[in-house]
Structure formats: structure tokens, C-alpha cells
């Protein structure tokens, strides 16, 4: 398996959960991790800040740059990109992980929450991609990885929560379009999504608490799957909507039991799969 040693990863929402897991796996290779997230102060319901994440990244063997970033604000993203380039000399990989979720039907979705999901998920992904691309185009083996689902345009994925599905599929449409737009220039765009629920704060707080956590896999499976994708030649791997267990099979890992929070529990399938 390839290495991310010396590569610079700009990861949105990397203070905890899947974003942090991807950063930690890259840090184990000796990568530079830009932790671009809003979590400056501790939250009563959410573990971790950009600063605790930076400590974890450096303990894992990487170099960390924590920056306070709200991906809804162009000036903040541009400042973070500039700081990353100033600190590490460039950007090799962008991971669009920051996301907002509300699993409500149309009549129970207020427009403030609708706007938040679309501003963070779709617009934030587009904005971060746009601002990182001038540097990715100069990088060796540049990748953009969006944490978003396959574009399955079936009614069942929209009906329960139209607003959320639209916002997440917007991230996936960025993959579809930008993969084609930048293929000839050598930048890979891919999506990654889990087969099962992942033990994150969002799952614990919004989808069923501890019971759901016990039926989930650990974020490390997403970190390992992302690592495989990001170490592939960009010219060979672009425009794909990867599922974590399928990626692990490509990497030669077929026993996924160690990733289960509780191997005795039946795993809960994630949305959109």
C-alpha cells in the first residue's frame, strides 16, 4: 500500500469523527494535516476541538495545522487555504467532510436548517474545491475526496428527508462534474460512503444514541478506506462513488470484524445504500 508521507491534506470537519479518522490514518504515514473546522471551544455534546485533534494528529506521527473555518464563509476558507500553503508549501489532497444533517420531512424542515445543510454540504464542498484547486493543480497525484453517497436517484432515498438528501447529493454531483472537468488536468475526484452507520457524534445524538452506536462500525474503517483511495494514481481512480467495505476488499482486507464497535451486534445499514 502506498504512503501519504509528506503530503498535505486539507480536511474540513476534522476535529472529530470520520474527518479526524482520515487525518489520523494519514498522520501515521507522516502527512501534514490541516484541521479546518469550527470547533474552537469544547461542546457539551460533541467531543474534540481543532486543538485536541491537532494533538492527536501529532501524537500519531503527523504535522498538524488547526484553523478555525466555517465553510459557509469564503474569506475564512481562503484564509485557511493561504495559511496551509504558507505553512506546508502547498495542498496535495482535499477531503470535503464537513456536513450538516437533519432527517426531517418537508413540513418539519424550517428554512434556516435547510439553508444550513445546503450552505455547508453542497456550497461548502464546491467552495473548498474551488479554492484548493489552484494548489491541487500544482501537486503531484492530487486528490479530492467527498464524504457523500452514490447518486441513486430513487424515490426511497428522497421521500423521508428531501432537504438532507438534496444537500448530500449536491456533494456527490460535485464529484460527478469535477471528475470530468479536471480529468485531463490530473486531479482525481471521488466520493466515499459507509455501508453501515459509523460510531460518530451525529449517530449518537441524532439517530438513536448508544444502541445505534453498538450496531455501528468505528470511524477507522473510513480512515483506512480513504487512505487506499488517496494513495492510488489520480489518473487511474476518478469519478467513483466508493463504499467503504468494497474499498477494503480492494485493499486486501476482507475480515472487517475489528472495525465493529460490538462484533456481537447486527450492523445497521447506512442511508443511501
Describe what this molecule looks like in 3D.
With 273 residues, the chain is of the alpha/beta class. It contains 10 helices and 7 strands. The chain has helices spanning 17-27, 50-59, 74-88, 111-136, 155-158, 162-182, 201-206, 209-214, 220-230, 244-250, and strands at 8-12, 32-37, 63-68, 93-96, 143-146, 188-193, 241-243. It has a 7-stranded parallel beta sheet with strand order 3-2-1-4-5-6-7, sandwiched between helices. Strand 2, helix 2 and strand 3 (63-68) form a beta-alpha-beta unit. It is globular. The two termini are 27 Å apart. The mean pLDDT is 95.
Radius of gyration: 17 Å
% residues in beta strands: 5-15%
Low-confidence stretches: none
Helix content: 40-55%
End-to-end Cα distance, whole Å, is 27 Å
Number of strands: 7
Overall spatial form: globular
Counting DSSP H or I runs of 4 or more residues, the number of helices is 10
Task: Determine the mean pLDDT.
Answer: 95
Main sheet characteristics: 7 strands, parallel
Structural class: alpha/beta
- Order of strands, widest sheet: 3-2-1-4-5-6-7
Give the H and E element order.
EHEHEHEHEHHEHHHEH
Quaternary structure:
single chain
How are the secondary structure elements laid out?
Elements: E1 8-12, H1 17-27, E2 32-37, H2 50-59, E3 63-68, H3 74-88, E4 93-96, H4 111-136, E5 143-146, H5 155-158, H6 162-182, E6 188-193, H7 201-206, H8 209-214, H9 220-230, E7 241-243, H10 244-250
Parallel strand pairs: 1-2, 1-4, 2-3, 4-5, 5-6, 6-7
Amino acid at each position: 500500500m502506498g504512503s501519504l508521507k509528506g503530503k498535505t491534506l486539507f480536511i474540513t470537519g476534522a476535529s472529530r469523527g470520520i474527518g479526524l479518522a482520515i487525518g489520523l490514518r494519514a498522520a501515521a504515514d507522516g502527512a501534514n494535516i490541516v484541521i479546518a473546522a469550527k470547533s474552537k471551544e469544547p461542546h457539551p455534546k460533541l467531543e474534540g476541538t481543532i486543538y485536541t485533534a491537532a494533538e492527536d494528529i501529532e501524537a500519531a506521527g503527523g504535522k498538524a495545522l488547526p484553523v478555525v473555518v466555517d465553510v459557509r464563509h469564503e474569506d475564512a476558507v481562503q484564509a485557511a487555504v493561504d495559511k496551509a500553503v504558507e505553512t506546508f508549501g502547498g495542498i496535495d489532497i482535499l477531503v470535503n467532510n464537513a456536513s450538516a444533517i437533519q432527517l426531517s420531512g418537508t413540513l418539519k424542515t424550517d428554512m434556516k436548517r435547510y439553508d444550513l445543510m445546503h450552505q455547508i454540504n453542497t456550497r461548502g464542498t464546491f467552495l473548498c474545491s474551488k479554492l484548493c484547486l489552484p494548489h491541487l493543480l500544482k501537486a503531484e497525484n492530487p486528490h479530492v475526496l467527498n464524504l457523500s453517497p452514490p447518486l441513486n436517484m430513487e424515490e426511497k432515498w428522497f421521500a423521508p428527508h428531501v432537504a438532507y438528501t438534496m444537500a448530500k447529493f449536491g456533494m456527490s454531483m460535485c464529484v460527478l462534474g469535477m471528475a470530468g472537468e479536471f480529468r485531463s488536468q490530473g486531479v482525481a475526484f471521488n466520493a466515499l460512503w459507509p455501508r453501515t452507520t459509523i460510531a460518530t457524534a451525529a449517530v449518537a445524538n441524532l439517530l438513536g444514541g448508544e444502541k445505534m452506536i453498538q450496531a455501528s462500525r468505528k470511524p477507522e474503517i473510513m480512515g483506512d478506506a480513504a487512505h487506499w483511495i488517496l494513495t492510488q494514481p489520480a489518473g487511474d481512480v476518478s469519478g467513483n462513488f466508493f463504499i467503504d467495505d468494497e474499498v477494503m476488499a480492494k485493499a486486501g482486507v476482507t475480515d472487517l470484524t475489528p472495525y465493529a464497535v460490538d462484533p456481537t451486534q447486527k450492523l445497521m445499514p447506512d442511508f443511501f445504500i
